[in-house]
From TrEMBL, chain A:
Reported cofactor(s): pyridoxal 5'-phosphate
Key word Transferase present: yes
Signal peptide: none
Domain (Aminotransferase class I/classII large): residue spans on this chain: 71-421
Gene3D superfamilies in alphabetical order: Aspartate Aminotransferase, domain 1, Type I PLP-dependent aspartate aminotransferase-like (Major domain)
Protein name as catalogued: Aminotransferase class I/classII large domain-containing protein
Classification lineage: Eukaryota, Viridiplantae, Streptophyta, Embryophyta, Tracheophyta
Keyword Nucleotidyltransferase: no
One Pfam family per UniProt: Aminotran_1_2
UniProtKB/TrEMBL annotation, chain B:
Keywords, sorted A to Z: Aminotransferase, Pyridoxal phosphate, Transferase
Organism: Hibiscus sabdariffa
Source taxon at top rank: Eukaryota
Protein's name according to its UniProt entry: Aminotransferase class I/classII large domain-containing protein
Domain (Aminotransferase class I/classII large): residue spans on this chain: 93-457
């Protein structure tokens, strides 16, 4: 599909049209002496397309070129839009100023993160489940942690992912060499176990038919479906992992969006400490998508098959392949976890949740099957019988709204569109209005199935 | 909780290698953080104590590559030793000339820009979410013009990062496990360690203190700290750091020309670490791209850490020229971009605002002043060891002094200096077998600490 598409981000200048790339590649193949003799990493060759979100950015840019005056509304990439509460940015500014003083200057920080911040994370999010500060590793974000975890695990483990799921799990798996070849027929990588999710199984995989894998990536509340697993479901998952000797990598980046009593951490489930790692992020919690801050919890009890503690190896990776999150970002993180800061952030989260509610209402009122939007800032809309890239294109063309086609998250997303609820309230309302216009008067062929 | 305690009581004491040292999860390298005793958990990473055999174990095998690593990463090791020393001598005035950690405050013009960006994040106009993974355009442009102005390196060849150490690992992910690599010996340990983790190497061979499959290019006073390339086997990747950490040697134009030719003849890729380029005092090249033809054989990685005191702020960059191609003609930059988009999410926007300020005329001048301060420190340290009759290397083009202790074990010298003068240095063997018999003294520190350290050295060695 997009094999020949050029550099995947709008700000990368290498963007030759596909034909030109082919031609230039051919020229080099003839060995004009300008190539090195270093073979390309075969794992990278296996990647099918560019990473999903730069692709979406690219489409947005192309659309803007076509319609320079269009008022494009981005409900695609889950990028936060609301300003960070003042007390938090103030603490970062103060920390920055202090770096110019003898008393306030700090050099290298602990690779695992500032001790006070680690403690605050443990106390804020894991107080009742006895996770220690020494089990918390501060990072520059979950996307980076996912790859560091893959480096930790190596190429010889097998993984399972939800289908659909956040593409970094699969892509990082391919890159590290776990995934085998891509099979065009199924749209899946050979060695990855795709646990299908859908309304038919309540967005929780049927574990009785799921083969064993070493690692199980599980995101809840889920990106992109918005489903938050119930306590019972997570108990099943932990039991499944325990029976199989597997490790769950639980992505709780959206935990603070939970509206009901769905668990916010895998460690709420007894026995989880011996089978799970949890990753999380300040991105969607505090608007830190650009500031860069997250964390990973590796319990001391989690052991490899030979009895070696996983935490030792993760610490080694963190010390060797990383050098700590920015100290300024960490100062901001600490402010987020003060009671005042946390309260201010809650208000922003509620703002996005209200956005989600408006979008859910819009789609529901149009008679469309809509999921999510309650425990996560994503709305997952079903267009039965359609191809999601076509729906994406139609919505973009007719309403100038960017969404994300479900198939970008795996074959299980093929007939769905993800709409993210980040955005200024006026734009969410405007988007809702445009979508109503598109779908209500039968104008869209997408509804005539 | 009990797990950690149990591990600490069952340490195997038979080993004599200083590398089989415990891991601390609370790195004590920050000078101003006091490490409470209980966090120094002495954990042996080699054996499985009795208690663990009854504990639940998953069925996931440990990554065999990580198992190859001999001990903890070098600098947390040094930090651990420092912390242990402080426990022993709680009132000692320890001076850290070990880990190359900057100590002087960041110039105002730079921190003000970061504070401004922070404040801006609380406003509608100033808020920004995800940035381009490759870095903010203005910063990439400023890096191109400041460091590569007339070298034909363009803005879009530059990828902003959270530091060179992280970039080294991302480059390894790009290259994969099926490439061979060469390093200088001695060299910055992240090159070797990341290679082991990535699966490019064989087992560690204790007799020669080297990993199988890595080509170690010996750099000694005898060869002017530049390897004899006629004796170096071809490898796919060649890591080359100049000015060098730890030896301080900066390669000449002639040497780099030979290196580029060597890479070209062998179809190899040089990963050139230029983190200390601004410390050069003479006319040695500051960038590999000063050498004609380098764009087709080299990647360059660099950092704001030692220029702007950004060791904690986290900002660096990597240059991957468009002209650099894999053997099938595929541009390396495309794969690097893919890794950057998938395994990374951009450097912090606040750090990048600081970086941009560093490259303003005022910021750059202020940075040069701080660099000059550390260079003066270096001079003082060089003079001290010279006056004591030591053979001293480096210190002219880098903030490191490489002191020769012929016939002595470097960890022993490290321990002796620490015990007798309360000064932390870095043992040369931590950088590879070619570092044995040397100690690296770093020149970062407050002036009075450096002067005091030199007084103590004079006392010890006179």
């Amino acid at each position: 599909m997009y094999k020949l598409s050029a550099c995947c981000s709008m700000s990368c200048g290498i963007s030759l049209p596909p034909k030109m790339i082919l031609a230039s590649l051919r020229g080099h193949k003839q060995g004009n002496g300008r190539c090195t003799n270093v073979p390309r990493n075969v794992n990278l060759e296996k990647l099918q397309n560019n990473y999903l979100f730069p692709e979406i950015s690219k489409r947005e840019l192309q659309h803007l070129e076509k319609y320079p005056n269009a008022k494009v509304i981005s409900l695609g990439i889950g990028d936060t839009t609301e300003p960070i509460p003042e007390q938090i940015s103030l603490s970062m500014a103060n920390y920055a100023h202090a770096l110019s003083t003898a008393e306030g200057y700090r050099g290298y920080g602990a690779e695992q993160g500032n001790q006070v911040l680690r403690k605050a994370i443990a106390e804020t999010f894991y107080k009742d489940v006895a996770i220690k500060d020494t089990e918390v590793f501060v990072s520059d974000g979950a996307q980076c942690d996912i790859s560091r975890l893959q480096l930790l695990l190596g190429s010889k483990v097998t993984i399972a992912v939800q289908d659909p799921s956040f593409p970094a799990y699969i892509d990082s798996s391919v890159i590290i060499g776990q995934a085998g070849d891509f099979q065009d027929k199924t749209g899946k990588y050979q060695n990855i176990e795709y646990m299908q999710l859908g309304p038919q199984n309540n967005f929780f995989p049927n574990l009785t038919i799921t083969p064993r894998t070493d690692i199980i990536f599980f995101c809840s509340p889920n990106n992109p479906t918005g489903h938050a697993a119930t306590r019972k479901q997570l108990q099943q998952l932990v039991e499944f992992a325990r029976d199989n000797g597997s490790i769950i990598i639980f992505d709780s980046a959206y935990a603070t969006y939970v509206s009901d009593d769905s668990p916010k951490s895998i460690f709420e489930i007894p026995g989880a400490k011996e089978v799970a790692i949890e990753i999380s992020s300040f991105s969607k919690f505090a608007g830190f998508t650009g500031v860069r801050l997250g964390w990973t919890v590796v319990p001391e009890e989690l052991l490899f098959s030979g009895g070696f503690p996983v935490i030792h190896d993760f610490n080694r990776i963190v010390c060797t392949c990383f050098n700590g999150a920015s100290n300024i970002s960490q100062a901001g993180g600490l402010a987020c976890l003060s009671s005042e800061g946390f309260q201010a952030i809650r208000a922003v989260i509620d703002y996005y949740k209200e956005n989600a509610r408006i979008l859910v209402d819009t789609f529901a009122s149009l008679g469309l099957e809509v999921y999510g939007g309650v425990n996560a800032p994503y709305v997952w809309v079903h267009f039965p019988g359609s191809k999601s890239w076509n729906v994406f294109a139609e919505i973009l063309e007719k309403t100038h709204i960017i969404t994300v086609p479900g198939s970008g998250f795996g074959p299980g997303g093929a007939e769905y569109i993800r709409i993210s609820a980040f955005g200024r309230r006026e734009r969410i309302i405007e988007a809702s209005w445009r979508l109503e216009k598109l779908f209500s008067m039968g104008k869209s062929p997408l509804l005539t199935v | 909780m009990s797990l950690m305690n149990n591990l600490s009581t069952s340490m195997i004491s038979s080993s004599s290698s200083p590398f089989l040292a415990p891991i601390s999860f609370n790195s004590s390298r920050t000078q101003s953080v006091t490490v409470p005793p209980k966090s120094i958990s002495l954990v042996k990473c080699v054996s499985t104590p009795q208690e663990q055999q009854t504990a639940y174990k998953t069925k996931v095998s440990r990554n065999a590559n990580i198992a190859k690593l001999q001990a903890g990463y070098l600098f947390p090791e040094v930090a651990r030793r420092r912390a242990a020393h402080l426990l022993k001598y709680p009132n000692a005035q320890v001076i850290s000339l070990g880990i190359g950690d900057t100590t002087e405050p960041i110039p105002d013009v730079i921190t003000s820009a970061m504070a401004k960006r922070s404040h801006g994040l609380s406003t509608l106009e100033g808020y920004s979410g995800y940035g381009a993974e490759q870095g903010e355009k203005a910063l990439r442009a400023a890096l191109a013009s400041t460091f590569y102005g007339n070298l034909g390196i363009e803005e879009d060849d530059i990828f902003v990062s959270d530091g060179a150490k992280c970039d080294i690992s991302r480059l390894q992910v790009v290259f994969g496990s099926n490439v061979t690599m060469a390093v200088q010996d001695p060299s910055y340990p992240a090159y070797v360690d990341s290679s082991v983790i990535m699966g490019q190497t064989g087992q560690f061979q204790k007799d020669v203190e080297k990993y199988a499959n890595i080509e170690y290019m010996r750099c000694t006073p005898e060869n002017g700290f530049f390897p004899d390339l006629s004796t170096v086997a071809r490898t796919d990747i060649i890591f080359f750091c100049s000015p060098n950490n730890p030896t301080g040697a900066a390669a000449t134009r002639d040497q780099l020309t030979r290196l580029v030719k060597f890479a070209k003849d062998n179809g190899s890729i040089i990963v050139y670490d230029s983190a200390y380029a601004l410390y050069i005092s003479d006319d040695k090249p500051r960038s590999i791209f000063e050498i004609p033809g380098a764009k087709e054989v080299a990647i360059e990685t660099a950092s704001f850490s030692k220029y702007a005191g950004f060791t904690g702020v986290r900002l660096g960059w990597t240059v991957v020229p468009k002209q650099l191609l894999f053997s099938d003609g595929f541009p390396v930059a495309k794969d690097f971009n893919r890794i950057v988009c998938t395994c990374f999410n951009g450097a912090s926007n606040i750090s990048q605002a600081g970086g941009l300020a560093c490259l303003s005329p005022e910021g750059f001048e202020a940075m040069q002043e701080v660099i000059g301060f550390y260079k003066e420190n270096t001079k003082i340290i060089v003079e001290t060891f010279n006056s004591l009759g030591f053979k001293v290397y480096g210190g002219q083009n880098a903030p490191y002094v490489w002191v020769h202790f012929p016939g002595r074990n470097s960890w022993d010298v490290f321990s002796e200096i620490l015990e007798k003068t309360h000064i932390v240095t870095t043992p040369g063997s931590g950088f590879g077998p070619g570092g044995e018999g040397f100690v690296r003294v770093s020149a970062f520190g407050h002036r009075e600490n450096v002067l005091e350290a030199c007084r103590r050295f004079k006392q010890l060695y006179n």
